[in-house]
Amino acid sequence: MYIGLDLGTSGLRALLSDAGGAIVATADAAYSVANPHPGWSEQDPADWLDACKTVMAQLRTDYPAEFSAVRGIGLSGHMHGATLLDAQGQVLRPCILWNDTRAAVQAAVLDETPNVRDLSGNIVFPGFTAPKLTWVEENEPEIFAKVAKVLLPKDYLRLWLTGEYVSDMSDSAGTSWLDVGKRDWSDDLLAAGHMHRDQMPRLVEGSEISGNLRENLRADWGITGAVVVAGGGGDNAVAACGVGCFQDGDGFVSLGTSGVLFAAKNSFAPDPASAVHTFCHAVPDTWYQMGVILAATDCLNWLSRILGRSPAELAGKLDRAISGPSKTLFLPYLSGERTPHNDSTVRGSFVGLDVATSPEDLTRAVMDGVSFALRDNLDALRATGTCLSRVLAIGGGTKSRFWLETLATTLNLPLDLPEKGDFGAALGAARLAIAADTNADLSTIMNRPKVAETVEPRIDLVDRYSETHARYRALYPNLKVALS
């Protein structure tokens, strides 16, 4: 038996699977995010450990025989977080999360440093790890002076599980300290941020063994044999393992809290100026390119709070079939934006409101706006030479048929919906644990899910959505001026 742990922004998900990848059980535990100042987003790493204890106890209680037979654990986690530890392994301050934008100035300085983009393969975004350490150096020097190790969130959980300071290539690619082409820490990139190699964890591939579960945990949990812990990876790379997306040309779109358009690559071919991320995959000798929008279903969650109606209620008021784009435009930059704008200061906007605008109109506008933002991502990927002819669609937003048809038509791509099941990062993490323990061929472990249905673009409406997207895209420069 194998366990996949997905350390998300709002909670930890555990998935128990057998050696064939069939899901036996899942368990979840929630925790909170602190926002002590505008643009700040922090979390107490102790909450991750408490959540892990909770989900493991639930799995053991509900499936004692299966749990006792666990032989591997895989890890997935939200990327870019800065968990700072002293020489004794104690946490120095709350972890600064991926959606924290306080280090925008420091990111801009690092991004302009010679060779940083060339070595890292990416723009230095404010949410990346390296600028956060520069911010700590400038604003909390007494803490910076004590930093002995910097761990990404899932790697702090690994430290508790194994006692080992280890990370993987895919998660580390989002720090701006990794030479993404060579899949190793770069002394030049570290020096640019006044960091040193000895402050970094050891690196492994996501499908390799990173360590073994500590004996006291194994005994406390009643597991009978040794348990390997796989390298794992950043959440999107591991989610790609969950849907079998690791061959060149494979892709998926995720309508989750944030939005992602992901394309696997068999070579390293970055184009930082496009604001497309080029990272190592969680499997060896593979990379991926990804466009990211910072708010997808989070936009609908925001609207639901404003209107006092649940997201499901708002979505349920819309027809299943689309009839054309909304007259009201929505720019979904509630937390700034990554691809293609790399702008941490821009904010969202409705354009075209009038006295007749209804809650349904606002809901349509939000779904359109998120879809248009993902169209921006597709255009950016295409500009790098990446070609996608169809993509899997995953994430909570795919429960809305209206949103799916909007997105398919806006992208002008067929969206394949997996058969009902859990195909997220927790499953991908379990698959990496299987690979680490068995050394089996990755293509047999990470098979693609069966497609339950394909949502085709509405050919009769493609041109209308494309024209409206052009109007949407033209609004960004004017919004920047209005906010400056």
From TrEMBL:
<feature type="domain" description="Carbohydrate kinase FGGY C-terminal">
    <location>
        <begin position="252"/>
        <end position="436"/>
    </location>
</feature>
<dbReference type="Pfam" id="PF00370">
    <property type="entry name" value="FGGY_N"/>
</dbReference>
<dbReference type="InterPro" id="IPR000577">
    <property type="entry name" value="Carb_kinase_FGGY"/>
</dbReference>
<dbReference type="InterPro" id="IPR018485">
    <property type="entry name" value="FGGY_C"/>
</dbReference>
<feature type="site" description="Important for activity">
    <location>
        <position position="6"/>
    </location>
</feature>
<feature type="binding site">
    <location>
        <begin position="79"/>
        <end position="80"/>
    </location>
    <ligand>
        <name>substrate</name>
    </ligand>
</feature>
<keyword id="KW-0808">Transferase</keyword>
<dbReference type="InterPro" id="IPR043129">
    <property type="entry name" value="ATPase_NBD"/>
</dbReference>
<keyword id="KW-0418">Kinase</keyword>
<protein>
    <recommendedName>
        <fullName>Xylulose kinase</fullName>
        <ecNumber>2.7.1.17</ecNumber>
    </recommendedName>
</protein>
<feature type="active site" description="Proton acceptor">
    <location>
        <position position="235"/>
    </location>
</feature>
<keyword id="KW-0119">Carbohydrate metabolism</keyword>
<dbReference type="GO" id="GO:0042732">
    <property type="term" value="P:D-xylose metabolic process"/>
</dbReference>
<keyword id="KW-0547">Nucleotide-binding</keyword>
<dbReference type="InterPro" id="IPR018483">
    <property type="entry name" value="Carb_kinase_FGGY_CS"/>
</dbReference>
<dbReference type="InterPro" id="IPR018484">
    <property type="entry name" value="FGGY_N"/>
</dbReference>
<comment type="function">
    <text>Catalyzes the phosphorylation of D-xylulose to D-xylulose 5-phosphate.</text>
</comment>
<dbReference type="Pfam" id="PF02782">
    <property type="entry name" value="FGGY_C"/>
</dbReference>
<dbReference type="GO" id="GO:0005524">
    <property type="term" value="F:ATP binding"/>
</dbReference>
<dbReference type="InterPro" id="IPR006000">
    <property type="entry name" value="Xylulokinase"/>
</dbReference>
<dbReference type="GO" id="GO:0005998">
    <property type="term" value="P:xylulose catabolic process"/>
</dbReference>
<feature type="domain" description="Carbohydrate kinase FGGY N-terminal">
    <location>
        <begin position="1"/>
        <end position="242"/>
    </location>
</feature>
<dbReference type="GO" id="GO:0004856">
    <property type="term" value="F:D-xylulokinase activity"/>
</dbReference>
<comment type="similarity">
    <text>Belongs to the FGGY kinase family.</text>
</comment>
<keyword id="KW-0859">Xylose metabolism</keyword>
<dbReference type="InterPro" id="IPR050406">
    <property type="entry name" value="FGGY_Carb_Kinase"/>
</dbReference>
<keyword id="KW-0067">ATP-binding</keyword>
